Amino acid sequence: MMSLRAPAQPATGIAPASERPILALTDVHKRFGSLHVLKGVSLTVERGEVVVIIGASGSGKSTLLRCINRLEECDSGTIVINGDEITHRRANLPAIRRRIGMVFQQFNLFPHMTALENVEEGPRTVLGMDRRRARELALEQLNKVGLAYKAHSRPSTLSGGQQQRVAIARGLAMSPMLMLFDEVTSALDPELVGEVLSVMKDLADGGMTMVVVTHEMSFAERVADRVIFLDEGLILEEGGPAKIFQRAENERTRQFLRQIHWEADGAGSAPPSNEPNRKVSGAESH
Ligand SMILES: Nc1ncnc2c1ncn2[C@@H]1O[C@H](COP(=O)(O)OP(=O)(O)OP(=O)(O)O)[C@@H](O)[C@H]1O
Ligand SMILES: [Mg+2]
Q1: Which of 49, 114, 139, 266 has the greatest count of CB atoms below 10 A from its CB?
Q2: Measured at the alpha carbon of residue 37, what is the angle toward residues 31 and 40, in degrees to the nearest 5?
């Protein structure tokens, strides 16, 4: 895959917008009481990059994503989105959240609204778009996730995979510069995982900048530009998927991959089919 990284910028001088990293974390710390969850995370994500974060339960993956759109406040360090420091006291929170789409394990759709209404709600209420434009935009996004034909269905009548795709369409409708995904397939029945990963792969192929927390290692292997292993609140190792999955330098990384029964293609046996390492299958056809 071609490199999507912009050239490094000098420490002084303002980089042109097109060359700024979309996301830059510097020495981010987060504590919950005496629990030190993030212990100095520094990370830069370039425009168009897909970064997959892996790590054991409790290592701080969700906390890290939540700090990025300020659902959590970090205690120290800085987070800069496209040149603006969002950790600043006077940062404009609504403006920050408009730029970042986040999709969670639980779909968080409004149950009383149709798929279309769920997707057009943000553009209408947050961006102040008129009803007709918002509707057109929402349909376009539903089409992107293969669900235009379910536009008038309520979430309760959709499968988990379909609901999650509506949630992705809802995020996309805000034209975010960055999408965050937190284990978006973990609550799905195995047969529904592929259709959601397939939508995410399409997004990545379309150039969306994405930070993805997932246990779907086969997805990471195929889609990630960079894989980050978070261990007890620190980035212990990062690199391309081939390096992390086949030639991890750190014993803890290798141990984690062994624990989740993941061995990359060609490096060992295939994972059992009911383990969280399924191969990406195509979206449903209709
Ligand atoms: N609001 C909170 N208050 C107190 N402790 C919290 C809070 N949120 C998370 N923690 C703790 O912080 C640690 C990191 O949690 P986090 O949810 O970031 O882990 P994770 O890597 O996402 O784990 P998982 O893979 O299970 O989702 C855990 O020990 C968790 O119990
Ligand atoms: Mg989590």
Answers
A1: 49
A2: 90
